[in-house]
Amino acid sequence: MKVLLTTLNSKYIHSNLAIRILYQLNKFRDGLDWKEFVIKEEAESIAEYCAQYEVVAFSCYIWNITQTLAVARAIKKINAHTKILLGGPEVSYDWQEVIDREEVDYIIVGEGEIPFAEFLDSYPQQLEKVSCLVRKQNGVVQYNPLAKNFEVSALADIMPYADDEPETLQNKVLYIETSRGCPYKCEFCLASLDNKVRYLPDATIKATLLYMMQHGRVIKFLDRTFNIKKDFTIDIFRFILQHHRPGNVFQFEITADIVHPDIIAFIQAEVPPGLFRFEIGIQTVNQKANLEVSRKQNFEKTSGIIRQLDNKIEMHLDLIVGLPLDYFDDIRYSFEQVFLLFAPELQLGFLKFLKGTPVRDKYEQHGYVFDPEPPYQIIESNYLSKEQLASIVVLENALEIYWNRKRALHTLRYVSKKYSVFDFLMQLGFYFEARSAFHQHSLVDIFQHLYHFAVEQYPDDIVLHELITIDYYLYTKIRPQDLFGKEANKRDMHQWLNQLQWHHLPYRFVALPISFLWKVFVETGKIVPAPDRLWIRYDGKRKSVWLQEQEALQKETEGNIC
Question: Model pTM?
């Protein structure tokens, strides 16, 4: 029997851990293969490859279920005898409509390790022996709910990436799990349905991690709350520090308000900056909304931990728009409070009604309307109108362009202290949308729209205009064109360059007259009015660096420019 384990990843750089584990557990069986595709590939092209197998087993998620079903239909057109077996979180709940489709033959519900092995042993004559298998027999849907708990200790000595070409791992995002389950019960999350946390064998975790470090670069831990056990967390951190290679980056999902002081002390004493990334789901600052979805969070503690660690850890913070009891003004408040943490990445997501989650089961209580098709995103509720949600989508686009992609960092830091950064980004988003497409624009468009928006809406805020200009000049590696007419005139520049003895250096410079002390702003966020001149140097290889004139004169005197 020829069986293919496969999935459609969202991008080429991603890797699927589930099919690798299932393959490693069953690779001793003749005829079992595995292969990954990407959702952007043509369904017919994928189907041509898959149709040569007797059974094709797909790993299904919210981001690939639509494309997976399209491939399944295409496979059936090529070879009607190929059987389609689906598994994964997207088909483990509310599977009735999926199994009714002509292109779907079988579904494995829940964890797949035991049922998939039983399926391979029992196919095709004794499928009634397969636990958690949904199947059609003579037009009737049958389900054997007999579930056997999978002991993760059975993954001892299983190395998921053993059959990857090692040289291909360097350019992929590699995933590792050290535990399964989550102790929390957030009603919008599938992880809340398994509250028993089970840890894989320590030796297996470290062997897998070592291999990933040796051959890969970006490593993401799938644990929902990596920092539950303080000693385990520190032990894994220490193992990484002992074995990581230059270029390795490690991302962990943590719950910030329970980070133990010993973990903080260890990070400050041992971890170099930039090696670790922490993904922290704040979701909302509104405690009523948190309690309504069975979520516990102390934002004061969370923000305190983030500030204690942001000198060492790159933070990725998440907010969710659409939680019950979270009105438009509540979302504005949460956004502005979280923005002030100045995380390198702030993701503004929208509530999704995942199959199996309590929030989906109770949607009528809050007047939720959501898209019936994946990703099941909120359309409106008792707390947010369609129009309000649409305006927040516009804000999200502006946030991505200007903050997450690091185009206007100084500008938005200033805005967040003086204005409502929520309103600013929303208005900017509408201004941008009226002039360019969010997904098709030039770098010049990005800065021109920002500058002209600020001049129109904040005509008297000269500091804001200057910061936009500075962000524009600091973003590029080569000296850009003078978009806003803010550069000092050439005659004065040449005179100053001669005075500073920079005219003979292999660099290009820009001088920007400004009305505040730049160094004070960078170090404290405060605006101290005073005439100053900011010099920006370019060498075409690195991000541009800034020099204040007085500091440059002092360094020149010391014989050490920059």
Answer: 0.92
